[in-house]
């Protein structure tokens, strides 16, 4: 059973999302929070598997709450998926830098929301396709001179670089395996080696590095 914490300052939004989640046999909402402080306290008390976190909340916002969750070693197993009505690039990148595992818009279809929760619980990063395209395009416009070289990337093989691009494009291990025609176990091994070589805490840090160093381009998702 996947334990979920809902953090959103709008009670009606929380009720709607809770209704979708509680209809599923493998999902259970253990608590709700209307601000970042309450969400952080609930995480420390209940240790949910996944937090669905709104970005804009009174007091401590969702980005700061996600940042504190990611920085707390005792909450290392807690995955944060940001839910917002705003798809501005700075919010997406800020959420990823804060340690969020996923980023979805509130107009996401219920099926995609359910998939995001399950994917996050498994440790995969998931960003809605429309947001991913915008984020990649925004980073593609940055001059190469703005990117600081990271020699950790030199340790990656060509296959690992390909896998890293697929991670950044929002693909799960199973989707990577299908795309590369390998077993899911092989795909998982590639991901684990990439994280080890980059000294990345989780997949989200791999995504951030891929964006920062221009490893993905606007045409990559269609490639």
Provide a descriptive summary of the structure in words.
- The protein has 223 residues and is α/β, with parallel strands linked by helices.
- Helices cover 49% and strands 13% of the residues.
- The chain has ten helices and six strands.
- It has helices at 11-22, 36-46, 62-71, 89-97, 110-121, 129-140, 158-168, 173-180, 184-198, 203-212; strands at 2-7, 27-33, 50-54, 79-84, 102-105, 126-127.
- It has a six-stranded parallel β-sheet, with helices on both faces.
- The longest helix has 15 residues, at 184-198.
- The chain starts with a strand and ends in an 11-residue tail after the last helix.
- The mean pLDDT is 84.
Short overview:
The protein is α/β, with parallel strands linked by helices and 223 residues long. It has ten helices and six strands; from the N terminus they run βαβαβαβαβαβααααα. 49% of the residues lie in helices and 13% in strands.
């Amino acid at each position: 059973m996947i334990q979920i914490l809902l953090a959103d300052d709008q009670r009606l939004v929380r009720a709607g999302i809770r209704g979708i989640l509680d209809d599923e046999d493998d999902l259970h909402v253990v608590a709700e929070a209307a601000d970042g402080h309450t969400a952080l306290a609930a995480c420390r008390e209940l240790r949910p598997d996944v937090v669905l976190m709104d970005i804009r909340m009174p007091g401590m916002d969702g980005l700061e709450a996600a940042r504190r969750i990611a920085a707390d070693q005792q909450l290392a197993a807690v995955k944060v998926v940001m839910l917002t009505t705003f798809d501005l690039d700075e919010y997406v990148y800020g959420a990823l830098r804060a340690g969020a595992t996923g980023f979805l818009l509130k107009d996401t279809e219920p099926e995609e929301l359910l998939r995001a929760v399950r994917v996050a619980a498994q440790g995969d990063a998931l960003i809605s396709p429309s947001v991913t395209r915008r984020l990649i395009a925004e980073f593609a416009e940055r001059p190469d001179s703005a990117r600081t070289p990271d020699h950790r990337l030199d340790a990656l093989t060509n296959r690992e670089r390909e896998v890293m691009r697929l991670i950044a494009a929002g693909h799960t291990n199973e989707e990577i395996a299908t795309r590369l025609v390998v077993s899911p176990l092989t795909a998982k091994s590639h991901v684990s080696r990439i994280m080890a070589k980059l000294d990345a805490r989780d997949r989200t840090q791999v995504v951030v590095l891929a964006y920062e160093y221009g490893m993905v381009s606007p045409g990559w998702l269609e490639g």
